[in-house]
Amino acid sequence: MTEPVLVAENLTQEYVLKGGLFGKDRIVRALTGATFTLEPGKTLAIVGESGCGKSTLARVITMIEEPVAGTFVLDGTKAGPDTRDKLRTTVQIVFQDPYGSLNPRQRCGQILEEPLKINRPDMRAEERTRRAREMLELVGLRPEHFDRYPHMFSGGQRQRIAVGRALMLEPKVLVLDEPVSALDLSIQSQILNLLVDLQERLGLAYLFISHDLSVVKHVADDVIVMYLGRPVEIGTKEELFAHQRHPYTKALLSATPMADPTLRKERIKLTGELPSPVNIPPGCAFSPRCWKAQDKCRKERPELGPEPHPAACFFPE
Ligand SMILES: Nc1ncnc2c1ncn2[C@@H]1O[C@H](COP(=O)(O)OP(=O)(O)O)[C@@H](O)[C@H]1O
Ligand SMILES: [Mg+2]
C-alpha cells in the first residue's frame, strides 16, 4: 500500500460568536471529528450543503487556521505551529472565486512568480520566470498571456492561473474549495479535465470540496458526506453512488440532476430547515429532517459504522 500523504484524525473547529453586553457567547461547531486519509494521486471529495463545514476543513488543512482539537500529518510531518513553515509548500489551496483571488494589479506572470519570490528568495529572477512560463503552458494558457492582467481573462482562464499559482511550489496536496462552482457549466468540465490531467502528470493528491455531486462524480476516488460539521458517510465513489447508506446522502443525491439515467432516482424532498451549527439537534443531527427517525435517533448520536463504507446512522439502508 502507498503511504498516505495526508492523515487527519478527529479534526474539530469551533468559532465563538460574541453575545455582546447582555447576551451569552455562543459556539459555532463548524467541524467535528473529521478523520480520513488521502493517498498520492488520489482525490478525496468532501460534499455537503452550504454551511456544513467544508471550507472550515479547507482552512484547517492549509494551516490558515489551527483546529481546536484533532491532528493531521502531511507527508510524514505532523502539522503544528513549529512545522508550519516547513509544510507551507506541501499543501496549497485554490479558492472558488476566480475574480477575487487574483491581484488585479499584477500581471499573470507576476502572479505565478510571486510564491517563488516569497518562499524561494535565493532563486534567480530568470529561473523564476522560466518556471512561471512553463507553468503557464502546463495549465493550458498561451505564452502571450504572461504579460496580461487578470481582468483580461475569462473566469475559466483565471481559474487556470489560480491553479498554476498553487502548483508553483510543487505541493503534494492541493485543496480545491469549490473550484468550478463559480464557472459556467461548459467551462466547468474544461477545468475539471485540466485538474484530472495535472493530477496524472504530477501525482498530486486532491482534497476536492464541492456541494455538487455531479461534479464529484466526475473527479472523486473517495467521498466523505458531511452534515452539520460531521462526516456522516464515507465510501469509494462507486460504492457511494451505487448504494447510499445514510438517508441524508440519499436525499442529497436525489436532489442532484444526473446525466446518467441509471442514477436518476425518485426525488426525496427534505422537510424542515437546515439547523444552525450554533444549535445542533441532540442525538443524530439529521433526525429532525429524517423520514426514518425513531426515538433512539433523537436521543443518541450514531457513530460512523465499520469499514468499508461507514455511515453514522442507526437504520442505514
Ligand atoms: N470565522 C467564523 N466565525 C464564525 N462562524 C464561522 C466562521 N467561519 C465559518 N463559520 C460558520 O461555520 C459553519 C461552517 O462554515 P463553512 O466551513 O464555511 O461551510 P461550507 O464551506 O460547507 O459552506 C457555518 O455555519 C459558518 O457560518
Ligand atoms: Mg465553503
Automatic annotation (TrEMBL):
Boundaries of every ABC transporter domain copy: 6-253
Keyword annotations: ATP-binding, Nucleotide-binding, Transport
Record membrane topology: Peripheral membrane protein
Primary localisation category: membrane
One GO CC term on file: plasma membrane
Localisation: Cell inner membrane
One of the protein's GO biological processes: transmembrane transport
SMART domains for the chain: AAA
Pfam families according to UniProt: ABC_tran, oligo_HPY
Gene Ontology molecular-function annotations: ATP binding; ATP hydrolysis activity
PANTHER family linked to this entry: DIPEPTIDE TRANSPORT ATP-BINDING PROTEIN DPPF, TRANSPORT ATP-BINDING PROTEIN
Name the record gives this protein: Dipeptide transport system ATP-binding protein
